[in-house]
Amino acid sequence: MDSAKILSDHNIKPSIIRVMIYDFVKNTKSHPTVDEIYTHLQPMAPTLSRTTVYNSVKLFASSGLFKALSIDGIQIRYDADIGHHGHFRCEECDRVFDFKIHEDAESGLDGFDITKREIFYSGSCIECKSKN
Amino acid sequence: MDSAKILSDHNIKPSIIRVMIYDFVKNTKSHPTVDEIYTHLQPMAPTLSRTTVYNSVKLFASSGLFKALSIDGIQIRYDADIGHHGHFRCEECDRVFDFKIHEDAESGLDGFDITKREIFYSGSCIECKSKN
DNA sequence: ATTAAATTTGTAATCATTACAGAATTGTAA
DNA sequence: TTACAATTCTGTAATGATTACAAATTTAAT
Lengths: 132, 132
Hints:
The structure is a homodimer of 132-residue chains.
Chain A (H helix, E strand, L loop, with lengths): L2 H7 L6 H11 L7 H8 L8 H13 L4 E3 L7 E3 L5 E6 L5 E6 L4 E2 L5 E12 L1 H6 L1
Parallel strand pairs in A: 3-6
Antiparallel strand pairs in A: 1-2, 3-4
Helix pairs in contact in A: 3-4
The structure holds a DNA duplex (30 and 30 nucleotides).
């Protein structure tokens, strides 16, 4: 669907920069950080401010368009895939992989209202593991 | 088991302060932050430095005695329970609850070497939910 | 007791993120 | 078009957790 329309549907005015930020995160599988978003878009939008990127991703996250991930515990990453899934970070090649979480994966939260789920594993991916 | 012996068994010299830090985290269910550890121990050890707390918890984590948790994305919390389990943070009362993760909860990581797992949910706990 | 090694401490630096206020842009009505 | 208000964008300064580092202290062994 048209990104501008998606933003509008969430009561966010689809300014050019907002659409650029939304599109980049949506089309980037690595779940970019604010810095990566800024570095990628800055050549196309020379006056872009880091603060604008921070503001936009926060706005998208609070509207449910993005999920905020603290995958490495250093910088927050943003994911336009809202569905329930896990993230695996390879500590050798630094890539991030998505993986599936089964239904009823947990117990002990009966009666709790779960609004946010974050699942983060790390180690060595299959490629890096076979190199060693 | 004796905390000093546990540290020794992991090739960590059991200094008084290290044992105090280890004991406090082990006996505190809330998975304290460095600041909470420091604030709690400082009256008993007036010369304690925050840096020492940082050094010690990092040492314990790298030795496999603690797990580092980025539950709220702001401060790192430390957990002396090494077993695989999840953490739920209630956004109303700010408490952290442990919960069980089933075996084979995920798929898509065949052949990967998983060395660290972090599972973090948030929302409203059963008590806060019933208050509303 | 002396000396070397390890630990502890305190200050200064780092770095991601946020606060904030002014500048620029957009939308609307005459 | 012009004027005006509302929103968005920008840049600098502040915040706050964590780390770097070197000096001070403690520990261990001879």
